[in-house]
Amino acid sequence: MDFSTPPELQDLLQRAGAFMEAEVYPLEDAARESFEDALEACNEARERCKAAGLWAPQMPPEYGGMGLGFLPHAHMSEILGRSPLGHYVFGCQAPDAGNMEILHKFGTAEQQDRWLRPLAAGQIRSCFSMTEPGRAGSNPTWMDTTAVRDGNEWVINGRKWFTSGGHLADFAIVMAVTSPDTTPHKRASQIIVPTDTPGFRHVRRLSIMGDLGYGWQSHSEIAYEDCRVPVDNLLGQEGFGFMIAQERLGPGRIHHCMRWLGICERAFDMMCARASERLIAPGRPLGSQQVIQHWIAESRAEIDSARLLVYQAAWKIDREGTRAARNEISAIKFHAAGVLQRVIDRAIQVHGGLGMTDDTPLSWFFRHERAARIYDGPDEVHKTVLARTILKKYGIELGSQGS
Amino acid sequence: MDFSTPPELQDLLQRAGAFMEAEVYPLEDAARESFEDALEACNEARERCKAAGLWAPQMPPEYGGMGLGFLPHAHMSEILGRSPLGHYVFGCQAPDAGNMEILHKFGTAEQQDRWLRPLAAGQIRSCFSMTEPGRAGSNPTWMDTTAVRDGNEWVINGRKWFTSGGHLADFAIVMAVTSPDTTPHKRASQIIVPTDTPGFRHVRRLSIMGDLGYGWQSHSEIAYEDCRVPVDNLLGQEGFGFMIAQERLGPGRIHHCMRWLGICERAFDMMCARASERLIAPGRPLGSQQVIQHWIAESRAEIDSARLLVYQAAWKIDREGTRAARNEISAIKFHAAGVLQRVIDRAIQVHGGLGMTDDTPLSWFFRHERAARIYDGPDEVHKTVLARTILKKYGIELGSQGS
Amino acid sequence: MDFSTPPELQDLLQRAGAFMEAEVYPLEDAARESFEDALEACNEARERCKAAGLWAPQMPPEYGGMGLGFLPHAHMSEILGRSPLGHYVFGCQAPDAGNMEILHKFGTAEQQDRWLRPLAAGQIRSCFSMTEPGRAGSNPTWMDTTAVRDGNEWVINGRKWFTSGGHLADFAIVMAVTSPDTTPHKRASQIIVPTDTPGFRHVRRLSIMGDLGYGWQSHSEIAYEDCRVPVDNLLGQEGFGFMIAQERLGPGRIHHCMRWLGICERAFDMMCARASERLIAPGRPLGSQQVIQHWIAESRAEIDSARLLVYQAAWKIDREGTRAARNEISAIKFHAAGVLQRVIDRAIQVHGGLGMTDDTPLSWFFRHERAARIYDGPDEVHKTVLARTILKKYGIELGSQGS
Amino acid sequence: MDFSTPPELQDLLQRAGAFMEAEVYPLEDAARESFEDALEACNEARERCKAAGLWAPQMPPEYGGMGLGFLPHAHMSEILGRSPLGHYVFGCQAPDAGNMEILHKFGTAEQQDRWLRPLAAGQIRSCFSMTEPGRAGSNPTWMDTTAVRDGNEWVINGRKWFTSGGHLADFAIVMAVTSPDTTPHKRASQIIVPTDTPGFRHVRRLSIMGDLGYGWQSHSEIAYEDCRVPVDNLLGQEGFGFMIAQERLGPGRIHHCMRWLGICERAFDMMCARASERLIAPGRPLGSQQVIQHWIAESRAEIDSARLLVYQAAWKIDREGTRAARNEISAIKFHAAGVLQRVIDRAIQVHGGLGMTDDTPLSWFFRHERAARIYDGPDEVHKTVLARTILKKYGIELGSQGS
């Protein structure tokens, strides 16, 4: 058992952290209202990030990335997560990052050439169309979007939302039912759809917690209306949609958790700084209040223990694969999301009125990371799934909804 | 002991509720992005509200109001609170309502003629300048804004923020230190400042949780720069600023609490409706999930008990006055704010992705009512004050910060 | 709406409170290890209680009681609840009190003469046999104990536990299945069984949270082994067992809640006293700690709001009957139990090591009132039932287990 | 970073676990009422433990122990903690274990021969007298017990309580003020007092949460009344009492935390087993309830993350010493205690009425481990200390009580 970080990783993290402070944090003010306003500056920072050898930590060198293993990338993800702009500037922003991953794992050589290479280079953008407004995201096998084969084409029909980055994407990867009559987990396939395909209709950017957003910081509603793409646009095999989604989501949850811990650290730091600087009476800092001290202490313990739990899950994925670590992934997903929400809440309370304003990143975190308990499987689903697996060892079999 | 609502009040509440559903809720969609977009429609609804005899429930008939007592108005406040637009349409929106109250109690006849009458009629708008960016709102006696007498004028200097409605207001009531050398609670006075006075500078609308807002739904930063007003603009006596603020805030907290309970009921209703309509599998509503049932049950108990606590405080104010009910007011302020936050949070979780969008009022409640635990005294101050009063009966005297 | 207590009730409560302090609290030390050690002294206090006109507040005068209505008795119950000995000394201790109630409502004249009269006078003792070790108490219609009619006798077989006071009782009222093939809620009947009946076997007093207890403060396991009683011992009609149990439990839950609030007040008072007296440094009381102040404030708000919720439920029972107040009763049951546990927990923490000892009543409350969230329907059942009723208004019907 | 357990440690833990199940759990029933009843059987099990080579894991081989390092012993501590009897049977029970540790570190050769050797062999028993009834344990430098030098003797006067195992101990180590006028942390010394010394008066065993206890499972009040011991009985140097106590408490907290995690695992296992076996309706196990599933999932995540936090602290102690790991120790102390209380509480609720009885170890855990948040520094002190250290980095210095 060894809790130390290897010196070379420590060094890398320090460089990444320094880059964040020098190049990323200063862009936040401009991005606060809308990512659009900071886009150009972010893109310039991307070039500096490439020059600094910090681009695309998760991608193999042949795609211009750093080729970090899973656990080291988890460490990176925390550093980048401290700013809403970090992952974008470093070339590993959702949903592009997840799309790169599945294109890399399941794409044909042609698909990789056409889509993955420019995506990894940051030259094009992508989106991922899975969630539907009419169906509960907590039951991902139940969807209405269909892709029917017609000659050499898939004809896709349906409506998706929370298709992040949809309004600027060059292509979408869409989940659609291709075999409605088979077992639920084999009904859907993933298909690549260039966004200029007729029948791909961008309905609207959803206004989310007060923001329309822009680019990957936006979430679109998309209508697929007799949208036709070549059969070769199938990603992986027919009926593998759900399996690929799992491959995408499992490790993705680790990255989310690490990003949340980055947010926690940022909020924690702001909370402590505010507690130290703000006076409640002459000569008496806010941090002299015992209740605030206790929030600081509780946050410290919660963040640190949650981080270890995430590390351990990442370590297990590295050694035994995503499937073996399913329980661990479920546990960190809801556990870290809970820590995140509590820490942000305390940091806002310590900031008082200022915490309500958009003068600090806390408001952005508070508003947009409320979704942490919802996306990629709500808390309730992960808890149920974890408990079901545990109870199986005690001899009882429960359905996926727990009863 | 009697928990019934008198029939005539019940009838009034029903009429108010029906007006809300018919005239106010439909305006919400337009107001979602900015109150500005719904302003004209809201003003038309105000006229219908006057015509329906529901205008300004808290004001005496001579000012065009309904002349309700304190407890009945608390009941009304819950009904109106169900929509972010309710209080505006009914003519009892903060900060105008509070300003009406103190002008009515402490204003001279001239002041009442010039400011109160048109304010009560909804013809002009006002704001209240108390909180300062450089000083903790939790210690209201510590402020930097000063008003120095120079001949027949007050010369005001300082910076305020969270001056709600400041960008459209016709006049401000500003708290400023007039006697810096006396005992803390007697240092400040309240002064009426027309917003077209030279030296009243509107710095900016603060962006709050993603919204610039508009009108009373906005919060401004104001600079007072050698701003001169006649000495007659003093509200009440010199040095009474803090006392008047208490008179304003005490009952105001009841109204906030009742408004929050209105929000709770709206969110609760949406949560139950969503749990009933949304299917997680064919034929299986979300509300079949035991965890969601428990959120519903816990919310019901928490809302109902909090409401009774607020009623009791209002009842005590009606009988014994604000000062006698100080403990009760402190208790409801933090207790109801906590219930509010929990109920909104649960309602969002039940809505899943939809709860994150601005397609429902939940996002607005979640974002803007996070401030409930901060404004008018943060939870921490109210808890400390309440405990201090209780412990005094046990023989120990503690300073206002609790140690 | 009126939150005042009528002067005559106030006066009564004051007298009861004074009696508690003078006559009951002093008996606690002796009773701490086992109620047995204080029994004689308690019985003497009972006589003084009768002499003071405070005996059996809930019983009609013809049975020697005070004949209080439901809401006034709820008030009394809080006063008596402050000590584990209160209800016994005042002649309204569970399970005797509940048995008196159902004998009064459903007993024949003969049954009342033989069992109710001496029970109300405190001359005999009783117990109530419902819960079974082999069946979940949360599903009361599922029980294994049977009563089969054989000529003029019921032949009872089965095993019960948590039969409070079973080892000293003169008679038991036992729930047994008499019509196994009918609809679940009509299967059982209640039958009076003198404890000297052959086949009534007292197996053991359960050791509960460290105490064997004694008398009503003990909980027995009872075996019914071909236990025969006359058919006339049926209480009410055949198949009415469940209905009578509901009649017994509904109002009983109010009394439990009020008793818990009495415990809360006692613990709250001890917490404040300790915070005032205990020094953490010379001249610095424990209560100067902000965290402790906040526990005090939160406890105050939680207790007061919970009490109002219980009052309202009692008021509704008084006006509309138990059935109409079912939702309110479910809500207070879990809500007040939660408040109870939190307040006791805080009081113990404030007492530090002393709180762990049996030198104060806190340990007894902590240990034995953990059951508050379990008996008379665990929290989970009450929440599910309440939510189910609420959701029915939204158009969905859910089974009793919620799914 | 490596989360694996070395194979040889895994093997050892498995052997220890097997010994627990075969030799220790079966003794629990007898020990439930009082450890006294199981003493002889426990002592026999100790001999088998020695024979199995599992005795005194923390002691060096020259004292008959296994000589485990700190982190391996932490692992052992979790296994032993699953039963209230584990540490006793394995020869590493508090307070003996802590006394061995400080005698080993600070004792003279004579002291070690006389006290440590037989103690490590399990031939004699000891106690540790620090906490005083009249002084807050949260401020350990403030004590009233004094040791005044008189010739070749210390004359000790004062009153202690929570002197665990005091009624059977052969010697006590007592903290007493020897230099009242120096700086607070240097006022006290530790002195060895044979319990047959005149003036060592055993006042009583405290009744703790319903149990008088016996041996180390008991906590005594001790009066030191002109109690004289030779000056050579000083442990370490004069004025080093507090420092030695810190050396004893720091690692001791790790052991407590690991023991708590052992309890958590035991309670978790019982919770899952009960959820699987108990039916709430025919064919429907309790574990089909979603709320119970969520308790299981939350417990799993909380236990696992807390354990990693404790491991990390132990790992740091191993590498950098106790002082360097002070923050980590404070964090785990309150964090793990909180997890412990929540897990036990959930396990009891899942057990329903059975959870209230002493038929399972849950009641013992619930009652006696409530103290986990109090002893060795209450939560509140550890939180304050941790926050103070953190805030120091932000430039503010706060007193030890946080204000």
Inertia-based shape of chain A: globular
The CATH homologous superfamily of the largest domain in chain A is termed Butyryl-CoA Dehydrogenase, subunit A, domain 3
Helix content, binned percent of chain A: 40-55%
- Distance between the first and last residues' Cα of chain A: 39 Å
Global structural class of chain A: alpha+beta
Strand order of the largest sheet of chain A: 1-4-5-8
- Quickly count the domains of chain A: 3
Features:
alpha+beta, four-stranded mixed sheet, Butyryl-Coa Dehydrogenase, subunit A, domain 1, four-stranded antiparallel sheet, 403 residues, Butyryl-CoA Dehydrogenase, subunit A, domain 3, 3 domains, 10 strands, homotetramer, Butyryl-CoA Dehydrogenase, subunit A, domain 2
Structure in words:
4 copies of one chain form a homotetramer. Chain A has 403 residues and is an alpha+beta fold. Chain A has 3 domains: 7-107, Acyl-CoA dehydrogenase/oxidase, N-terminal domain (Butyryl-Coa Dehydrogenase, subunit A, domain 1); 126-235, Beta Barrel (Butyryl-CoA Dehydrogenase, subunit A, domain 2), CATH 2.40.110; 243-393, Butyryl-CoA Dehydrogenase, subunit A, domain 3, CATH 1.20.140. Chain A is built from 13 helices and 10 strands. A 4-stranded mixed β-sheet of chain A has the order 1-4-5-8, covered by helices on one side. In chain A, helix 6 (96-106) packs antiparallel against helix 7 (109-120) and helix 10 (326-351) packs antiparallel against helix 13 (379-393). The longest helix of chain A has 37 residues, at 241-277. Chains in contact: A-B, A-C, A-D, B-C, B-D, C-D. Chains A and D meet through helix 8, helix 9, helix 10 and helix 13 of A and helix 8, helix 9, helix 10 and helix 13 of D.
